[in-house]
Amino acid sequence: MPNLVAVLVTLFVLFVPLKVIAWGSYGHQQINRSAVKLLKNTPEGACFTQNIEFMTRLAITPDYDWKSINMVNTPAELKHAKVMANVYEHPLHYFEYDAFCQPDQTAKACKLPTGDSFKGKTLTRLGNLLKGRIDYVLKMDPSKKIKDVNHPSPKEIAEHGVAPWRIKQLWNLAIEKLKTKKSEDVELALIFLGAMGHYVGDMSQPFHSSLNFDGGSNRPPATGIHHTYEECILEAEAKKVVGRKKDNWDKQKWIWTKFDGTDKEVLADSGCLVESSCPVVKPIKSKEIIEEVLNLDQSGQKYVQPLIDVFLNGNPYAKRDKNGNIVTPDHKPASTMPTESTNEGLNSDQVADSKPTPKPPDKYCDIYKDMNVNIAGQGPQTVLQSAELRMGQSSSLLAQLWVSAMKESGMDLRRCPSNLKFDMAKVINNYPLFSKDIRSAEHSKKQSENSDQDGQNNEANDPNAENRDSAPVTSGINSNSTR
Ligand SMILES: [Zn+2]
Ligand SMILES: [Zn+2]
């Protein structure tokens, strides 16, 4: 019986291919897992170690449980709540540092706001910073227009991302829950802390920190780099080491079971060379959290251009003119989906020369991941190693956040449950709403525009799904340029 929920679900399933996932499910699960391991030898760590599978699965909750991805695996009674959460999720996954500050400026030097609430003074300060960089912002991403440049609205500010404040929100919520004497609240706290790991991971993905989030501001464009860097190269490595995706993906539980290609490296990059003797993780003070997160985001700035340069220059599938200059990377035909949102960041003539949104062939990931990239202030490394380093940095910050949440709450660690089982209903029904003000304009607009389309691109019958092995990760997601 068609009811409002069914209609909404259909509408939002339509948007699924437009949304992609930072670090993919592999990378996000790797980050949470390394954070658990980092804490292995601390008293607080036991709480996480005895729930490692639970914490690993929660790493993908903001993408898979709170967005309209994975709809076919969602029980009917949860679909409505999920669709509602999806309306708010998008800007929670990134922060475009260069929209507010010089890329090489620290958060402190730039005087970015670091208070908990995403209103009042925080919005005023962000609005002023944005105003000061508006010419640059529009050059990089002409879609980010501001109606009244002297008074950017909360929504216009939030279009540049709010991840640092989302992280703090979840940290605060977790502490609130840890302080009660109810045992089910400890589980909820762990849900918030696990999901928080997702956004911390997002902050280490350089293409979640930049206006040039998918190379679309480049000429020639480097479209497709976002997905290639955060997901495709990691899976290419995993496949090389472990074998086909179905060999290390638990379809029932939605978690990766083997991380042989990157586990040691990410843990080492997070500060632990030998798993059995990881160093003590020092907690972080509540009022320093947002600044630390902003600094992680900022430190990704110097990766953006070098990664793009290597991506374009090393791409054997790129089309070149007779002088050997890259005209445009060669790509598979893009999705037949409406391309409106995948053209974000391009002005109208740029849109014309880049339609449909291109995407490099997946086999390029095998080549790209092993190419050398020079990041300022770092030794020689491959593209894959640079991704592992970033993931390790977020694992390290995440472990600090977890330990400090436990300490700050004064929780009796003996109350910590073990072997918690992931419960999708609990995770969806306790969705922590961030702020109604930032409800994405993009979503409300598309809702009306797409209402006459059918659901032909949902993941159940996505044509790409079959050539992606068991394809848990991006089945149905064709986008290159969204987060
Ligand atoms: Zn992403
Ligand atoms: Zn994300």
List keywords for this structure.
globular; P1 Nuclease; disordered C terminus; 483 residues; 21 helices; 6 strands; two-stranded antiparallel ribbon; mainly alpha
Describe what this molecule looks like in 3D.
- The protein is mostly helical.
- It has helices at 4-13, 24-38, 45-49, 52-58, 61-64, 76-89, 107-110, 121-132, 134-140, 154-158, 163-179, 183-203, 225-242, 263-269, 289-298, 301-313, 348-354, 364-368, 383-409, 424-429, 441-449, and strands spanning 249-250, 255-256, 318-320, 326-329, 372-373, 381-382.
- Strands 1-2 form a two-stranded antiparallel ribbon. The chain has a two-stranded antiparallel ribbon with strand order 3-4.
- Strand 5 (372-373) and strand 6 (381-382) form a beta hairpin.
- The longest helix has 27 residues, at 383-409.
- Residues 5-19, 333-356 and 441-481 have low confidence and may be disordered.
Oligomer: single chain
Which sequence of strands runs across the widest sheet?
Answer: 1-2
Structural class: mainly alpha
Calculate the mean pLDDT score and round it: 84
| Total domain modules | 1
Shape: globular
What proportion strand? under 5%
Q: How many H/I helical runs?
A: 21
Bound molecules: zinc ion
CATH superfamily (homologous) name: P1 Nuclease
Helix content: 40-55%
Q: Which sheet architecture does the biggest sheet show?
A: 2 strands, antiparallel
Order of helices and strands: HHHHHHHHHHHHHEEHHHEEHHEEHHH
CATH topology-level name: P1 Nuclease
Name of the CATH class:
Mainly Alpha
- Report Rg: 21 Å
The tally of strands reads 6
Any guess at the CATH architecture? Answer: Orthogonal Bundle
Distance between the termini: 33 Å
